[in-house]
Specification:
Bound molecules: alpha-D-ribofuranose
Oligomer: single chain
Shape: globular
Strand content: 15-25%
Number of helices: 9
Distance between the termini: 28 Å
Strand order of the largest sheet: 5-4-1-8-9-10-11-12-13
Structural class: alpha/beta
Largest sheet: 9 strands, mixed
Order of helices and strands: EEEHEHEEEHEHEEHHEEEHHH
Length: 314
């Protein structure tokens, strides 16, 4: 068992429809399937890290509605720690509308974080106590919760000597000072361009974008680039880590599988490259299944893919 981690992030119910292709504006497309399941970047990353072998506590916020039951049931079934879950009667649990095009496996998402955008300063103080008052070593966050909470937690975790990982998704305007509290940042190529203004298409441009984050104090920069793999840069020296090739049926949540896998790898003591390979294997396995949190692979499957073994698709 590795070092303990806290994930501060969203749970939302994913309401997903599949269609032969993604609709263009004003186009109506006949769908092939519809599903409601657990999702949200924070929840997906927590499930991915947990299934990959990490000791994680998820801090999220739910309403008292049916969507909240989906979160609790999933955590119960998996045996995850639920002590970090806040409940509110005032706001609804969040949801996301997801369209998946079967021709490409690509998706379009509108997320409405609901309760997850309403963390109060009292709740944030409670999270800070959980981070600094115990032996948690890693803190992983995304941007589907209110940004004042993310900023305050980053500052406190950095002051407490924790390793702070920010998956800056969905892209949002952040206070400039936040970067000095972040140890590792994990944008995809679109988010990297949003923050840096550099279009990330190649190893060279990924290196330039990574330099933008390094200049602001971030030590580890990992830019996920889909089928091209991931660009890993530590302290300014970077290179591409190639992806695992699999047949994708649904790429939704692949970034979350990557982040959860990365956290699991780092918290159990893997070096940077090993952890990125482990994360890439987790992401590759996740796109072979429909859904987000339910598509996260088991640790044995990740290790088997890394060893070059055939993993039967369910
Ligand atoms: O990263 C994928 C996730 O983003 C989905 O589960 C959806 O909930 C959105 O938040």
């Amino acid at each position: 068992m590795g070092r303990k981690s806290l994930i501060f992030g969203s749970f939302v119910a994913d309401i997903m429809a599949r269609a032969p292709h993604l609709p263009a504006p004003k186009e109506t497309v006949m769908g092939n399937g519809f599903k409601i399941g657990p999702g949200g970047k924070g929840f997906n990353q927590a499930v991915a890290a947990f299934k990959a072998g990490a000791e994680v506590k998820l801090v999220t916020k739910l309403g008292t509605d049916h969507f909240a039951e989906i979160a609790r049931d999933t955590m119960c079934q998996l045996g995850m720690d639920q002590s970090g879950v806040f409940i509110t009667k005032e706001y609804d649990t969040g949801c996301a509308l997801i369209l998946v095009g079967e021709d490409s496996g690509q998706n379009e998402i509108v997320v409405v974080p609901g309760a997850c955008l309403t963390f109060t300063s009292l709740e944030v103080d409670c999270v800070k106590d959980q981070i600094c008052g115990n032996d948690c070593e890693y803190v992983l966050m995304q941007l589907e919760t209110n940004l004042d909470a993310v900023t305050a937690i980053a500052e406190c975790a950095a002051a407490g000597g924790k390793q702070v990982i920010l998956n800056p998704a969905p892209a949002a305007v952040l206070p400039e000072q936040i970067w000095r509290w972040i140890d590792i940042v994990t944008p995809n190529e679109v988010e990297a361009e949003f923050y840096t203004g550099i279009s990330v298409e190649s190893e060279e441009s990924a290196g330039s974008a990574a330099a933008w984050f390094h200049e602001r104090g971030v030590n580890g920069v990992i830019i996920t680039m889909g089928e091209k793999g991931a660009y890993l840069s530590v302290g300014g020296s970077g290179y591409m880590v190639p992806p695992f090739r699999v047949k994708a049926v649904d790429t939704t949540g692949a970034g979350d599988a990557f982040n959860g896998g990365l956290l699991a790898g780092l918290s159990e003591g893997m070096d940077w490259k090993e952890a990125v390979i482990f994360a890439s294997a987790a992401a590759a396995l996740s796109v072979r299944k429909i859904g987000t949190a339910p598509a996260m692979p088991k640790r044995e499957e990740i290790l088997a893919l890394m060893e070059g073994k055939e993993i039967p698709a369910e």
